[in-house]
Amino acid sequence: MEVMTFNIDKDRRNLVDDKQNFSIDFHDSKYNWLQARQYEESMRQVEVHVVHGNGSPVDLTGMNPVFEGWMPEGLYRIIDAKHSVMIDAQNGIFRFDFPAPAFQIAGSYKQAFFRLMKDGMSVTTLEFSLDVMADKVISGLVPSDYITPFEDEYDKLIAIVKKADSKFAEQLIEWKNEFNKIIGDLNGDYIRIKSLADTLDARLKTLESKIKADGLPTVADLTNMLNPIIDRLDKLEAKEKSSDLLTDVGGGIRDIFTSQISNMKARINPDLVNIGMINDVHYTDRDSFWGPDNDAETGITHLLNIGEVSDKLDFAVSVGDNIDDNWGDNHFSIKRIEDYGMTWFTALECPSAVLLGNHDDNSSHAKSSSATGNDYIVPDSKFIQAYRQNVNLFGEKRNGNSNYFYYDIPNKKVRVVGINDYENPDTLDSDGKLKYPRINTSVITGAQLKWLATDALKVSADTHVIVMLHCPIDGTIKDNPTEHCYNHDVLKQLLEAFKNGTSGTLTSSTTDFPVNVDYNFASKGTLIGVFAGHTHTEEYQVINGINYVQNLNSVGCAGNAGNRILYFDTKDEDSWSVIGIDTANKKVKLTKFGRGTDLDFTY
User: Fold this and answer.
1) CB 115, CB 50: distance < 8 Å
2) Whether the model pTM is above 0.70
3) DSSP 535-591
4) Residue-wise pLDDT tens digits, 165-201
5) What average pLDDT does range 123-144 have in this prediction?
6) What SS3 state is found at 44?
7) Sign of the CA dihedral 218, 224, 225, 227?
8) What is the pLDDT of residues 498-543, one digit of tens each?
């Protein structure tokens, strides 16, 4: 059992600017924390100690501890007044048994704390960290608000309706009085619950009228009465209805794309293994770099476009430069990353993953303003959360919580390998400047190369492998794709060894990121191709027997800075691909959405 201690006199945190959408950083170990997995019920308990500033216990006699939380993703709230057990009131100790509804949604709570109530007065503890780990094995609760004073009385009403005996009217009136008393006992913090109660009370008056007219209500009548309360729950119960919640993301799917989406659906061959690839979305509103009037902020809607065909895909990858730089502190970049991850994993109906690019971490600030330190950099911990690297949503395999991964498409004998060619550390040079800024430096570490050689590329003879990464490998389809490329040559050597079925040792030509990895491929591997983004061009080359494909950018412009061709608000604004793989004949059909030219090749 976890033990939490709250000092109600000394515990404090700083105020925040945005009082509605703030996030709390629990990096400091002084904060209390709890982790659980989705759908656990009454298995997570905490023993809570409440003390004064001098360490003496707070007398909790007569107090009712209430757990209050703002759930992950910020959509639902929980107010639970029924799962606390007073252990030693005089010494300030109670136990709280978290119910299953507290663990409906995977992720980190936006806010979680205890409210201690007595005679209409209350005092709250400081927030604690509450993380809910995903459970993809079973399906459980449908996300919704969980407010125990309301839930308890709602359950009583259901029981009365189901019984519906001769004393139905009396029981209903008794229930209504009890419900109103509970609402009256709650303080001003429960205005939202009172609103729900008023709505229900109005429906009850209608129900009483029916009873007086000798017409007992049915369960269907009850459902109609409570529609305003359960409307959101109804939407989430059906997958197809839940997509309605996405209509406010960037304005929803725009009219300029609807005919292309229909066309793309018709062109996807269901007999192939189909993998979606989108890259260089550059979702941002930082300035006019990508065109006038911050047009690049429309990039978030491009995720909805690929989401519309995702039921026909076996897998999809967003291959880096998902967002664009901020050229200031990291707060806007972190917000965009969270928006991007939320939209991506909600819009798509297929297994998927997100890779890093050179713009995602805001490191261009290192060059644009000669900034020192790395406070403006988005830390890897934010990518781990936003891109779901710590939960392996779809059974993908990672090296710990690495951005790189591999995923085996069930029953298709195809493995997707996602490579992170931006493993850059936040090392500072002697002047305090970022030594390896992602904006112009691509780093592949020895740890990832070892994982590739000993795990990701270790497949059965009949498994076909496709490789995806943001920056093209130096010396393949592009020479010097960025200013500094660390261990690109080693990666190229490893992929050729896999294809040719050879053994040897990988060593690095740089001392900055050393490599010493043995590899042993006893037979030739089947390598479909290496797919990259980054350059905002589309190209195709075969080098040493390996297909290298360059995918066009999704952001709606082309060309170098100062010589842009803009496609915003036209049918050509968006561009992404579906990679159709015919494993029987070793053929690939690359089908393009929007700008771009379809491509067919063999492997």
Assistant:
1) no
2) no
3) SS--EEEEETTEEEEEPPPSSSEESSTTS-EE-TTSTTS-EEEEEEEETTTTEEEEE
4) 556 656 656 655 555 555 444 444 444 454 455 555 5
5) 71
6) coil
7) positive
8) 999 999 999 998 899 999 999 999 999 999 999 999 999 999 999 9
* 292's tokens: 């006038």
Please state, in angstroms and as integers, the Cα–Cα distance from residue 176 to each residue in 156, 161, 167, 169, 215, following that order: 10, 13, 14, 11, 19
CA nearest 493: which of 546, 538, 443? Answer: 546
Own/partner pairs for 17-22, CB < 8 Å, 24+ apart?
21/74, 22/110
pLDDT at 244: 40
Residues 361, 369: Cα–Cα separation, whole Å: 15
Whole-Å CA distances, 250 to 18, 263, 264, 302, 450:
21, 22, 21, 9, 41
Rounded Cα distance between 333 and 374, Å, is: 14
Is the pLDDT at 41 greater than 80? The verdict is: no
> Does 483 or 231 have the greater pLDDT score?
483
Examine the pLDDT at 215 and tell me if it is beyond 70.
no
Q: How far apart are CA 154 and CA 149, in angstroms?
A: 9
Concatenated DSSP letters of 342-362 = HHHHHH--S-EEEE--SSTT-
CB under 8 Å to 432, separation ≥6 — which residues? 372, 373
Which alpha helices (DSSP H) does 59-164 contain, by range?
148-163
Q: Which long-range contacts (CB under 8 A, 24 or more apart) does 148-152 make?
A: 148/79, 148/80, 148/81, 148/82, 148/83, 149/79, 149/81, 149/182, 149/183, 149/186, 149/190, 149/193, 150/193, 150/196, 150/197, 152/82
H/E element, 2: strand 2-7
**Of 304, 313, 322, nearest in space to 260 by CA:** 304
Query: What would you measure as the largest C-alpha separation in the chain, in angstroms?
Result: 89
Instruction: Dump pLDDT digits (tens) for 346-404.
Output: 899 999 999 999 999 988 877 666 777 778 889 999 999 999 999 888 889 999 999 99
Q: How confident is the model at residue 575, as a pLDDT?
A: 96
How high is the pLDDT of residue 247?
46
Which H/E stretch holds residue 496?
A: helix 488-500
Q: What band does 296 get if pLDDT is binned at 50, 70 and 90?
A: confident
Helix segments in 369-445, DSSP class H: 380-386
361 vs 84: CA distance, rounded Å: 43
| Cβ-contact 113, 68 below 8 angstroms | yes
Pairing of strands 273-278, 575-582: antiparallel
Count Cα neighbours of 118 within 13 Å in the Cβ-side half-sphere: 9
CA 421 – CA 443 distance, rounded (Å): 5
- C-alpha 378: how far from its chain's center? 16
The radius of gyration of the chain's CA atoms, rounded to the nearest angstrom, is: 28
Query: Environment class of residue 345 by beta-carbon count within 10 Å: exposed (0-12), middle (13-18) or buried (19+)?
Result: middle
Q: Can you read off the two tokens belonging to residue 28?
A: 């400091």
Q: How confident is the model at residue 123 (pLDDT cuts 50, 70, 90)?
A: confident
Q: What is the 3-state secondary structure (H, E, C) of 503-536?
A: EEEEECCCCCCCCEEEEECCCCCEEEEEEECCCC
Q: How far is CA 377 from CA 335, 374, 545, in A?
A: 13, 5, 39
Reported as type and span, the H/E element at residue 500 is helix 488-500
